[in-house]
Write a structure and sequence with these properties.
InterPro entries: Bact_Sporulation_Assoc (IPR051922), MurNAc-LAA_cat (IPR002508), Peptidoglycan-bd-like (IPR002477), PGBD-like_sf (IPR036365), PGBDSf (IPR036366). The chain is an alpha/beta fold. The protein contains 12 helices and 6 strands. It folds into 3 domains: 166 residues, Aminopeptidase (3-Layer(aba) Sandwich); 65 residues, no CATH class; 62 residues, Muramoyl-pentapeptide Carboxypeptidase, domain 1 (Orthogonal Bundle). Helix 1 runs antiparallel to helix 7, helix 3 packs antiparallel against helix 6 and helix 7 crosses helix 8. The protein starts with a strand and ends with a helix.
Length: 306
């Protein structure tokens, strides 16, 4: 079989939903694993995600073109839903009876992981379902803005479920997919200027070692989460909260992002944006040639990051 695997979004300006975790991050974690597992089972795989796009429409069109040009047998688009933080579970969209026969076992396997079954649905309104020449399914794995789904989320078990649903086979977990996540972690910690125990930036090699573990621990200590040196969902959630560059104002902000801000400004880290922090922000903004308004917006965040 020749599979066209479409890792949803991850192609600016085609960006996924932002929830507790970012859809872009989740589709990448699951999609890279699905691709390597299918390959390890001896299937042909075409990665249908374009590397650049001029618009969202262009991104979607390229995904279909890649699948059509390569004449894949089945097109599988991987996404995560977001709605109102309460809605949860798994649904799969498709446009034909053949598509339904492919979608059903994939859905069944994901639901076995504990996700709520929202069913196989008509996806004729979806661009990639409509514009691919072969049976296509679009998997909404679960909701990236629902806490209960994110607690259950595990890229290894999800990719196993998708592969098992598509092929009836189970692949061993390859190291390659694991490497990706560690590389992303190293890049994120470097961007946040979080150093290892020798105060050095991390080497971005995708390999977990003492330096990456110690930098992860340093970050965890800073934001007040369990220091285990391993980047689980809570750690990623904190990293992504900061990298989302939320607007912070005095007396209106608290928590993880403020702790990080205070650490960078070298003031007491208490997680509360009060007068002392506001003054330090203004001093920093003046130093960096920004408007010294004491409000941390995107420009101030960019100066705080590397
Ligand atoms: Zn999506």
């Amino acid at each position: 079989m020749k599979y066209g695997i479409d890792i949803g979004h991850n192609c600016n300006p085609d960006i996924g939903a932002r929830g507790i975790r970012q859809e872009d991050h989740l589709t990448m974690e699951v999609g890279t694993r699905v691709i390597s597992k299918l390959k390890s089972l001896g299937h042909q795989v075409i990665n249908c995600k374009p590397s650049r796009a001029s618009s969202v429409g262009n991104s979607l069109q390229q995904r279909c073109n890649i699948a059509n040009f390569n004449r894949v047998d089945v097109f599988v688009s991987i996404h995560f839903n977001s709605f109102n933080r309460q809605a949860n579970g798994t649904e799969i969209f498709t446009g034909s009876d053949t598509g339904r026969r492919i979608a059903q076992p994939v859905l069944d396997n994901i639901v076995k992981l504990g996700f709520f079954n929202r069913g196989v649905k008509s996806g004729l309104h979806l661009y990639v379902v409509k514009n691919t020449n072969m049976p296509a399914i679009l998997v909404e794995c679960c909701f990236c803005d629902a806490q209960q789904d994110m607690n259950r989320y595990n890229p290894d078990s999800l990719s196993d479920a998708i592969v098992r649903g598509l092929t009836g086979q189970t692949a061993p977990n390859p190291d390659e997919a694991e490497k990706k996540t560690i590389l992303e972690l190293q890049k994120a910690l470097n961007r946040l200027k979080i150093r290892d125990d020798n105060s050095k930036p991390l080497v971005e090699d995708g390999i977990i070692g003492n330096a990456t573990r110690s930098a992860t621990r340093n970050f965890q200590r800073l934001v007040g989460i369990t220091e285990n040196g391993m980047a689980g969902p809570t750690t990623w959630q904190a990293i992504e909260q900061i990298l989302a560059k939320p607007v912070l104002r005095a007396n209106h902000a608290a928590g993880t992002t403020v702790k990080y801000l205070q650490h960078q400004l070298k003031v007491v880290v208490d997680g509360v944006y009060g007068v002392v922090t506001a003054t330090a922000v203004q001093v920093f903004q003046r130093q960096e040639g920004l408007t010294a308004d004491g409000i941390v917006g995107p420009k101030t965040w960019d100066k705080l990051f590397s």
